[in-house]
């Protein structure tokens, strides 16, 4: 039973610490540079989630062009740059990934 109390205590404290920033802080009182920096947080978090999937194949770093995820990610980045459309970039990246996985499976 004490394990569950410890889990509940840690969960509550973690939730309270994260929620206190949103509940008790006035975002208009933050310095301008801090508010400006907060605009980049979602992109940084997304990059931190996506980068390991692109750069690590099978749990080991693979920066070669034989890594279909890395190549598809690069194709998606180019598509994003030229198309400026999120849906088109995701569709292009997924199509490239599927095609590369098929090609590497059949010819690699």
Architecture overview:
This protein has 108 residues and is mainly alpha-helical. The protein folds into 2 domains: 1-39; 41-108, no CATH class. Helices cover 76% and strands 4% of the residues. It contains 5 helices and 2 strands; from the N terminus they run H-H-H-E-E-H-H. It has a two-stranded antiparallel ribbon. Strand 1 (56-57) and strand 2 (60-61) form a beta hairpin. The chain is flat and about 55 Å long. The protein starts with a helix and ends with a helix. The model has no long low-confidence stretch (mean pLDDT 88).
Tell me the count of domains: 2
Q: What is the arithmetic mean of pLDDT?
A: 88
Determine the N-to-C terminus distance: 54 Å
Radius of gyration: 21 Å
What is the strand content? under 5%
- Major sheet summary line: 2 strands, antiparallel
Q: What is the total tally of β strands?
A: 2
User: Within the largest sheet, what's the order of strands?
Assistant: 1-2
Uncertain spans:
none
Key words describing this protein structure:
2 strands, mainly alpha, two-stranded antiparallel sheet, 108 residues, 4% strand
Provide the fold topology:
Layout: H1 2-23, H2 32-38, H3 41-55, E1 56-57, E2 60-61, H4 68-83, H5 86-107
Antiparallel strand pairs: 1-2
Helix pairs in contact: 4-5
């Amino acid at each position: 039973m004490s394990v569950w109390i410890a889990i509940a205590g840690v969960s509550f404290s973690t939730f309270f610490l994260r929620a206190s920033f949103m509940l008790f802080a006035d975002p208009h009182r933050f310095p301008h540079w801090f508010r400006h920096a907060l605009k980049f947080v979602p992109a940084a978090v997304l990059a931190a989630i996506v980068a390991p999937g692109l750069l690590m194949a099978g749990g080991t770093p693979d920066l070669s062009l034989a890594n279909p995820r890395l190549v598809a990610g690069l194709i998606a980045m180019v598509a994003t740059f030229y198309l400026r459309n999120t849906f088109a970039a995701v569709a292009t990246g997924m199509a490239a990934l599927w095609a590369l996985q098929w090609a590497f499976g059949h010819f690699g």
